[in-house]
Amino acid sequence: MEKILSQQSMRLLVVSQYFWPENFRINDLVGELVWRGHQVTVLTGLPNYPDGKVFQEFHDTPARYSNYEGVEIIRVPLAPRGQGGLRLVLNYLTFALSASTIGLWKLRGRQFDAILAYEPSPITVGLPAAVMRAVKQAPLAFWVLDLWPETLQAIGVVRSRALLLAVGKLVTFIYKRCDLILAQSKSFVPQIQKYAGSNSRVVYFPNWAESIFDMQHAVPAAEVSLKPGGFNVMFAGNIGDAQDFPAILAAAESLRSHSHIRWLIVGDGRMARWVADEIRRRHLQDCVHMLGRHPVERMPSFFKHANALLVSLKDEPIFSMTIPGKLQSYLAAGIPVVAMLNGEGAEVVRSSRSGLTCAAGDHVGLAAAVLQLSRMTNEEQDAMGRNGLDASVREFDRDTLIDQLEEWIRTLKVEVLPPSMSQGTP
């Protein structure tokens, strides 16, 4: 069905450290905004996530990556992520500095009706966003998908109380310069207000499944070998510390004697090498398979092999407030979910009856949930999948959420800016 374009086109600047050809949901959002008739410019860095090296295809032909579905892309230099904590900090800081200076120069003379900053991590993306807000005199909406400094503490990146306090002050500085803060879960809202102030405008704005999740027409990925009578548990996404792979591998190890159960890992990340080494050390090669990173457009073809989709986060208070971004994609796939989570993410699965849950970090509970699901009838598994689809439409519908975002941004343009600026006067 043809979609009606917005009543009035907006000139939008999106500030994001990550962007296509890196796989993040911001790609889907800006493509949709262009399709709705808006002029979108993205200020971003050089693609290097998650490998830590600038993508070779970008290095060879950078001009091919200057436009994405009608979105103009302005790129600034940064230090690639590389390996190790120091390189990661350098990556964060160089983008913030480069986008605030070189980015500002590349965007000189350009006017925007609103700015949207995308923050899956790090919070430092808010610094160039705040600079752009001040210089361009345009309201700033800030989409928070990761809470700082709590996440830094939870995964052990920062242990110094003084440094965590300094990061908290940085968070306050950035939040107080936002005209609208979008929180990816309801639990995030009061946590954000602790730093932004009770008078700040903070609203719930969750993730959605990318528009490519059309399972009906997906063709099974050739990279996955067929195993008649097998039960495939698939993890898709970032292989990092927060996802608690020690617990996942412990569950796989305890189920090794159940030869029909396979664990398929699609993705990459900072812990991928450790996971591969542990699979060999624990002699799990027959039941745990790493399939590498693939474009998000191919995920439905991999999901075609899955009997259950696995989502997990470590047992930390901050992660109990999080709805993992992959959960919305899992629900939209119509496949039962196995969730090793606490808090809001687990409640989504339980309340929708779309799968089985166990406590974060509970590898025994995870193994029991997988075994229980593998013994269910096809009818019972299909019912869980349908429940997930229903929850996806009811709570995380892409068009409904982007409609709401569009209206919020349009209201910001009217409420925050003086009349002359809201009409686009330089």
Question: What does this protein structure show overall?
Answer:
The chain is α/β, with parallel strands linked by helices. The chain has two domains: 224 residues, Rossmann fold; 181 residues, Rossmann fold. The chain is 42% helix and 15% strand. An eight-stranded mixed β-sheet has the order 3-4-2-1-5-6-7-8, with helices on both faces. A six-stranded parallel β-sheet has the order 11-10-9-12-13-14, sandwiched between helices. The two termini are 38 Å apart. The N terminus and C terminus are likely disordered.
CATH architecture of the largest domain: 3-Layer(aba) Sandwich
Number of domains: 2
The Rg value, from CA coordinates, equals 22 Å
- Care to count the β-strands? 14
Strand content: 15-25%
CATH class category label of the largest domain: Alpha Beta
* Stretches with pLDDT under 50, minimum 5 residues: 1-6, 417-426
Largest sheet composition: 8 strands, mixed
Oligomer: single chain
Sequence-ordered SSE layout with sheet pairings:
Blueprint: E1 11-15, H1 25-35, E2 39-44, H2 56-60, E3 67-68, E4 71-75, H3 85-106, E5 114-119, H4 126-136, E6 140-144, H5 150-154, H6 161-175, E7 180-183, H7 188-196, E8 202-204, E9 231-236, H8 245-254, E10 261-266, H9 272-281, E11 288-292, H10 299-303, E12 308-312, H11 317-320, H12 325-333, E13 337-340, H13 343-352, E14 355-358, H14 363-374, H15 378-395, H16 398-416, H17 419-422
Parallel strand pairs: 1-2, 1-5, 2-4, 5-6, 6-7, 7-8, 9-10, 9-12, 10-11, 12-13, 13-14
Antiparallel strand pairs: 3-4
Helix pairs in contact: 3-4, 8-14, 12-15
